[in-house]
Amino acid sequence: MEEKTKLLLLSLLFLVAVHGGAGGFVGGGRTTRNGWSNSNTSTLNNAYIALQAWKSAIKDDPKGILNSWVGSNVCDYKGVFCQDSSVTGIDLNHGGLEGILVKELSLLKDMTLLHLNSNSFTGTIPDSLKDLFALTELDLSNNQFSGPFPTIILQIPNLAYLDLRFNLFSGPIPELVFTKNLDAILLNNNNFEGQIPQSLGNSPASVINLANNKLTGDIPISFGYSGSGLKEILFLNNQLSGCIPQGIGMWSDLQVFDASFNSLMGHIPDSISCLEDIEVLNVAHNELSGELPDLVCELKSLMNLSVAYNFFSGFSQECGKLYGRNVGFDFALNCIPGREMQRPEPECDMIPGGSLSCLRIPSMKSFSCGTSFRSSNSRIP
User: Fold this and answer.
1) Which among 256, 260, 197, 265 is positioned nearest to 231, based on CA atoms?
2) Most exposed: 50, 169, 327, 355, by fewest CB within 10 Å?
3) Which residues contact 114 (CB under 8 A, 6 or more apart)?
């Protein structure tokens, strides 16, 4: 009887060695009966560890998303996407999940996107996320993350899309943000404060949204001088002051510029005439003054121009033609004589920022925009 028991144990050990136990896998990196390699098995095991650790840290799941997060086959989990037996993406947008992120998420080495928009995640971002070498898209928007800017995510080497909108992040925006190879930088609707980093002009991004924060100081004078790929930038509803930089004209691909609801002063720079693709130009609710020039109103792609709630003293005939071009044009509550819905005269007697000196390049139409700005940039301290 004892001899039969020994033979049975030897048979079982042989089966384990050949088939990898109940899972039926072959050791040594060879292909398994299921078509998976041993390395893929290890990857899925790590994914199982990571997702189960995360599941245990989620306190509320109102839509029952995590009910499917059972068993070792993580590719069947709702919101988890696999390719070649590896987790390549997680999309839990609008899940209403309440919990935190866990350090074990760094085990998902092949994950290229992590989308968590519109949940109730709290806390800070684990340092271990810097090890997500394949990650290109990180969307943490519409949550309740807090603390300073999570600089650790700037160490994710291949990140191209960063969305931190509608959270509770606070403190300054680090210089490094605008030096990384990010195509989209969405930081609006947080509590970021302090000045916009001077590195803003170095960003290769096509979309930058800094709206609805507590940013102060000037728009960096370097803005625009380092590239031309920016298509959309939003500064609205901060506490910015000073001039609109002349370098804005270097962003030849710019389609949307919104700096409304700040305290910007001085004139609109002539360089805006270089923005041939601009569709939306909104500088309303500032303290800008002077005349609105033809250079602005002649922009051929313009669809909406708002200069309302400023201190402009007039605009040219070309601006008056905007209505005939079906361009939305709002100039209410300025200081334009003979026009309706303007400020009371006493408010126009004292123009804010009258002594403010903004860099100005005259006679914009007499030279090439790009060439002019590059030569001007060499004179900027």
Assistant:
1) 256
2) 355
3) 89, 90, 105, 132, 135, 137, 138, 139
Q: How many residues does the chain have?
A: 381
**How far is C-alpha 257 from the chain's CA centre?**
15
Look at residue 347 in the predicted model and tell me its pLDDT: 92
Give this prediction's pTM. 0.85
**Interstrand relation of 263-266 and 287-292 (parallel, antiparallel or unpaired):** parallel
Joined tokens for residue 120: 């109730």
Q: State how far the Cα of 281 lies from the Cα of 298, in Å rounded to an integer.
A: 13
The reported pLDDT for the residue numbered 43 is: 87
Give tens-digit pLDDT for 50-63: 999 999 999 999 99
Decide: 226 and 248 in contact? Cβ < 8 Å: no
**Predicted confidence (pLDDT) per residue in 210-250, tens digit:** 999 999 999 998 887 666 689 999 999 999 999 999 888 88
Cβ proximity of 103 and 127 under 8 Å: yes
3-class secondary structure per residue, the chain: CHHHHHHHHHHHHHHHHHHCHHHCCCCCCCECCCCCEHHHHHHHHHHHHHHHHHHHCEEECCCCHHHHCCCCCHHHCCCEEEECCEEEEEECCCCCCEECCCHHHHHCCCCCEEECCCCEEEECCCHHHHHCCCCCEEECCCCEEEEECCHHHHHCCCCCEEECCCCEEEECCCHHHHHCCCCEEECCCCEEEEECCHHHHHCCCCEEECCCCEEEEECCCCCCCCCCCCCEEECCCCEEEECCCHHHHHCCCCCEEECCCCEEEECCCHHHHHCCCCCEEECCCCEEEEEECHHHHCCCCCCEEECCCCEEEEECHHHHCCHHHCCEEECCCCCCCCCCCCCCHHHHCCCCCCCCCCCCCCCHHHCCHHHHHHHHHCCCC
Token pair of 130, please? 């810097």
* Contacts of residue 181, Cβ cutoff 8 Å, sequence gap at least 6: 160, 204
Count of other CB atoms within 10 angstroms of residue 330:
15
